[in-house]
Amino acid sequence: MAAFGRQLALTRTSGVCQIATGSPVAPGPTFRVWDFWNNRWLRRTLRAARIGALSVSIFGVGYSTGASDVLADPTEFRRKKALSLLKNIHAFDAEGKARLCEETSEEVQAVRRVLPRVLKAARAQVGILQEEIQDAIKQQGEASYTQQQDLDSLKRARKRLESWSDDGFLLADVNTPNAFVTPMLPRTIFVHRGIFRIHRLAEPEALHAGAEVFVLQDGWKKAKLVSESQEQWSALLGDSLGEDSETITVKKEDVRILQTRNLVENDEQLAMLLSHELAHAVHDHGYESLNILTTAYSLELVLLSVLDPTGMLEFLLEIAAGAIARYAFVLPLGRCDEMEADATGLKICALAGYDPRLATKFLDRFALFEGYTGPTWTSTHPATEARIKALKDAEADAVERFQQHKEKQAP
Ligand SMILES: [Zn+2]
Q1: Is beta strand 169-172 parallel, antiparallel or unpaired with respect to 189-192?
Q2: Per-residue pLDDT tens for 185-216?
Q3: Same domain as 146, residue 78
Q4: Coiled-coil regions in this chain (predicted)?
Q5: 123 Cα–ligand 1 center, Å
Q6: I need a labelling partner for 222 at 20 to 30 A (CA). Which of 118, 119, 233, 263 fits?
Q7: Measured between alpha carbons, how far is 391 from 344 in angstroms, rounded to an integer?
Q8: What's the pLDDT tens digit per position in 220-241?
Q9: Using the 8-state DSSP alphabet, how is residue 328 labeled?
Q10: How far is the CA of 340 from the centre of ligand 1 (A)?
Q11: Which of 371, 365, 284, 379 is nearest to 331 (CA)?
């Protein structure tokens, strides 16, 4: 028993394990049987395995909690998820209510007109891609690993698109030109109202009494100008501009007018935008990046546990983990995803009977709006030269399809 106690009281000196006894004992082969336990790499491997297992089970717990939430009440789960995503894009008013465009608005009507057509075309596109791969497999005699993977992902895409309803979109009343799909809420396209028209406050060139303007009064407020003096305007403050409106005076430089700029101007341009978003679903892009993100987090934990015995680096990196995973894994993938979604988007557009030649013009138009609003469709979807070139390359094929579609439609 005493010998066992002595064996456990191990100390480490210069990387060699010795038994602590009253007098120094030269490390002899008799006691080396415990040495393996103090082996640095063994300990690190065990630690990595432990953390790996831990992260897998944490993911598992999260996954099953999510899954049970979905199973308990799918509609409520989607509603909650939609609300949290709307919050992310600031589509909430001061009272905390989601800001969505009215059903009767021009914007909602436009999406209602175009989405069913592009959805149908996206489903057809999945069928075309499946046939292409199956033909290739027939010629080779057997499916390669990548082909098998592509077929699996198309199968998932088909399921997702088949259950994507014609009202699978949310039109948020937000003044930024953006649209996106996310694997967090499948079968829904988020469209910002700013995609159609954005408002901005501009310096007025000329003003006159009676003009409706915005004035700087604890933030920009609506007002109606009444009369002018040398440096100032007197104005009636308020939305209703009724008789009980408060009269104020403002400096001339604190007066702005509301300017509206149109972006997506016709159904063709809207079709391209929606087709691009559906193309992400066709190629299963969200699914891939979610997987990669989870793998990145787990891998990071394991690597850190091996390379960082003090835990200091781990602590620092944990804080930045989200950003690191995003920049290292998700964004580079995102960029080539965008090109693929453009090319497929063009084809979907053409299949739906919208002229794909409008697409590149449409990107140029968006580039004009970079810089003065929040994230735009072109910053989440950077309009790089490479991207525009890829679009042009894909155009010829899409135009051919569009002509075929037109011929089919012709009496
Ligand atoms: Zn995209």
Answers
A1: parallel
A2: 889 999 999 888 878 888 888 888 888 899 98
A3: yes
A4: none
A5: 18
A6: 263
A7: 10
A8: 888 999 999 888 999 988 765 5
A9: I
A10: 9
A11: 379
Q: Which domain holds residue 9?
A: 2-55
Between the CA of 282 and the centroid of ligand 1 the distance, in Å, is 12
How many angstroms separate the CA atoms of 383 and 361, rounded?
11
- Structure-block tokens of residue 260: 């509206």
| 313 within some domain | yes
Query: 410 CA distance to ligand 1 centroid (A)?
Result: 33
Q: How many domains does the chain have?
A: 3
The torsion defined by the Cα of 141, 144, 146 and 147, in degrees rounded to 10, comes to 20
Cβ atoms of 200 and 126 closer than 8 Å: no
Task: For residues 210 and 237, state if they share a domain.
Answer: yes
Does 62 map to a domain?
Answer: no
At residue 337, the pLDDT reads 78
Low-confidence ranges of the chain (pLDDT < 70): 1-37, 57-62, 66, 70, 239-244, 286-335, 359-360, 362-386, 411
Residue of 132, 77, 110, 301 lying closest to 189 (CA atoms): 110
